[in-house]
């Protein structure tokens, strides 16, 4: 069993086909196919089965993949470690949902870089901003070190830690003619797979049943502008519309019901895969995110009326 064979296996397993895996590695398809055949021969087990135009992993492949990725990633780090044992990983792959990404990650990453200049020097951060469903799939595929997620994560086998609390806010344009007619209104919502959408639908079911959805959109800025321009209602994290509430462009129409407010309050989560090798850099970012959450909670407690 060689590193070259494991690289070919990981590339094909993550890409779903020999051709896509070969492109990832900048190798010929025949070279990748040969490496897979040699690896299967060494292991005495089939790793892939045909599934339409692609390949499906066997049980043996699914068991091998986490360890193979760890071996390949550690091998990539070896030249750096040989020069400096304290050298950090040079790439950090993280994901954030479409509320957390634009509104929390810029400050979090900038503060992390300021506090850890030696650790983050010459580091490339790959920040993927997607919805909850997509990021959970990428964590399962072992292509992300860490994901910051706003939706509920029920899949087994992942490490899920509560991070921050957030509130989903219902809103309309400032001069909406019937801002309290929630049951009769039409809604602009985030796309399927969005944690914000899931929280909204679950919380509103006892109040108005299934709302009538006028438009689904994956971009928070577009959603805000649609609501500001029309007679629709919308829902987003309160932090996502803070500026518009402050300048009067949008109006908070969330009912005062304590039960509804509780249902619209949710947690943000830190999600990782226990079988993905995590570098010192990824561990440091995770610790920094936890500390930032503690500081934020402390500020809120001090600001709360006594």
Provide structural commentary.
The protein is an alpha/beta fold. It has three domains: 3-71, Winged helix-like DNA-binding domain superfamily/Winged helix DNA-binding domain (Arc Repressor Mutant, subunit A); 91-164 and 269-303, D-Maltodextrin-Binding Protein, domain 2 (3-Layer(aba) Sandwich); 165-266, 3-Layer(aba) Sandwich (D-Maltodextrin-Binding Protein, domain 2), CATH 3.40.190.290. It is built from 13 helices and eleven strands. The strands form two sheets. Strands 3, 4, 5, 6, 7, 8, 9, 10 and 11 form a nine-stranded mixed β-sheet that branches. A two-stranded antiparallel ribbon has the order 1-2. β7 (186-190), α9 and β8 form a beta-alpha-beta unit. α1 (3-15) packs across α3 (29-43). It is elongated. 33% of the residues are buried.
Please tag this protein with its features.
D-Maltodextrin-Binding Protein, domain 2; single chain; 11 strands; 9-stranded mixed β-sheet; alpha/beta; disordered C terminus; Arc Repressor Mutant, subunit A; two-stranded antiparallel ribbon; 13 helices
